[in-house]
């Protein structure tokens, strides 16, 4: 058997699965395409490949076209006959249309199924459909819809979250500082973890300058302890952060038709 | 601005837009104005100290939010 040729044919047979996966993990989940182990990728590629190969084989048969498996088997055998290559050459256009249509449908299926899973929120409702980008679900507040989560939104929905306020503890020269601000962007690292978060209207204070709690349980004002950080955005490297606090807000109107922030509940 | 929940105050996802932004369109407009953006952050900080603090948006930002809301409604 020609190892090079059989490997090439095997790769060719796996192309529908590769394309399906590539178009399923797009946009916010594109890093996940490269994140999994080789074995996981192999399995996740084989199953859709088998599905599309079977579907196309029987569909072609159903509409009266014959897919010659003998020719395919002969080509990857140790002693392929000249007739098989001749047969392949004679049916080149048919083989091309057969495979290109399969690749196109596999790609489009991956793209559409991902959109269906996200728009129907199946990835939040069912763990089976959940993407591994856990930061996406935290930063966008979508984890509120997970069945196992202990915190649920009773009055609002995830879609009502209008912005996320971040508190981050960072250690600089042996001192711990608390940074806060409105989350405006984030970057994922190549392994799917968080690389950076970007906040706007940031300010910081030394962690020792905590608010004192008065006898009636209210926080005393410690705003003078904060140092405002001017600039459009402050980028914080996740690797340097000690911990992160997320608060999810929506905006309401008060009686004077002025906006007022409110925690989602 | 009305008190009704419009698309401008949500981060909706749809079949063709499955990646919701980090902020609603309304907040995105507020953040584009340095002054109003600061007011929003300050209002959150006040709220955390149990103080009632509204965000008095500038006329430009109010107009932009209104125009965007109208655009989304007619879309």
Description:
- The complex is a heterodimer of chains A (265) and B (75).
- With 265 residues, chain A is an alpha+beta fold.
- In chain A, 40% of the residues lie in helices and 23% in strands.
- In chain A, helix 1 packs across helix 3, helix 1 runs parallel beside helix 6 and helix 4 packs across helix 5.
- The radius of gyration of chain A is 28 Å and the shape is elongated.
- The mean pLDDT of chain A is 87.
- Chain B contains three helices and no strands.
- The N terminus of chain B is likely disordered.
- Chain B is mainly alpha-helical.
- Chains A and B meet through helix 6, strand 1, strand 2, strand 3 and strand 6 of A and helix 1 and helix 2 of B.
N to C succession of SSEs of chain A = HHHHHHHHEEEEEEE
What is the subunit arrangement here? heterodimer
Overall pLDDT of chain A: 87
| Classification by helices and strands of chain B | mainly alpha
Topology as H/E string of chain B?
Answer: HHH
Number of β-strand runs of chain B: 0
Query: Helix count of chain A, per DSSP?
Result: 8
Low-confidence stretches of chain B: 1-6
Mean pLDDT of chain B: 85
Compute the number of strand runs of chain A.
7
Main sheet of chain A, how many strands, which sense, barrel? 7 strands, antiparallel
Q: What is the structural class of chain A?
A: alpha+beta
End-to-end gap of chain B: 18 Å
Which helices and strands, and how do they pair?
The complex is a heterodimer of chains A (265) and B (75).
Chain A: H1 3-24, H2 32-35, H3 38-62, H4 69-75, H5 82-90, H6 92-119, H7 122-125, H8 134-139, E1 163-172, E2 175-188, E3 194-206, E4 227-228, E5 234-237, E6 241-253, E7 259-263
Antiparallel strand pairs in A: 1-2, 1-6, 2-3, 3-4, 3-5, 6-7
Helix pairs in contact in A: 1-3, 1-6, 4-5
Chain B: H1 25-32, H2 34-48, H3 59-74
């Amino acid at each position: 058997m020609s190892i090079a040729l059989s490997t090439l044919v095997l790769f060719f047979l796996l192309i529908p699965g590769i394309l399906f996966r590539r178009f399923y993990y797009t946009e916010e989940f594109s890093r996940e395409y490269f994140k999994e182990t080789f074995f996981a990728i192999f399995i996740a590629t084989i199953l859709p490949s088998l599905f599309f190969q079977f579907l196309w084989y029987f569909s072609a048969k159903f509409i009266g076209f014959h897919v010659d498996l003998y020719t395919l088997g002969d080509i990857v055998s140790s002693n392929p006959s000249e007739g098989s290559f001749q047969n392949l050459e004679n049916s080149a256009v048919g083989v091309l249309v057969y495979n290109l249509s399969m690749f196109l449908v596999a790609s489009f299926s991956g793209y559409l199924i991902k959109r269906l899973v996200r728009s129907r929120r199946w990835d939040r409702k069912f763990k089976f459909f959940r993407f591994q980008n856990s930061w996406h679900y935290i930063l966008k507040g979508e984890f509120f819809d997970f069945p196992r989560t202990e915190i649920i939104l009773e009055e609002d929905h995830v879609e009502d979250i209008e912005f996320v306020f971040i508190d981050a503890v960072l250690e600089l020269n042996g001192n711990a500082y608390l940074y806060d601000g409105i989350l405006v962007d984030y970057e994922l690292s190549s392994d799917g973890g968080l690389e950076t978060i970007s906040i706007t209207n940031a300010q910081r204070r030394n962690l020792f300058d905590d608010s004192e709690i008065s006898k009636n349980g209210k926080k005393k004002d410690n705003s003078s302890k904060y140092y405002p950080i001017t600039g459009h955005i402050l980028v914080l490297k996740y690797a340097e952060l000690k911990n992160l606090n997320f608060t999810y807000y929506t905006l309401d109107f008060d009686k004077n038709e002025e906006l007022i922030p409110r925690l989602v509940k | 601005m009305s008190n009704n929940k419009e698309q401008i105050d949500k981060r909706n996802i749809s079949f063709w837009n499955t990646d919701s932004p980090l902020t609603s369109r309304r907040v995105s407009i507020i953040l584009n104005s340095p002054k109003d953006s600061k007011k929003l952050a300050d209002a959150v900080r006040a709220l955390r100290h149990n103080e009632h603090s509204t965000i008095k948006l500038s006329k430009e930002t109010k107009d932009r939010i209104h125009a965007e809301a109208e655009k989304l409604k007619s879309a």
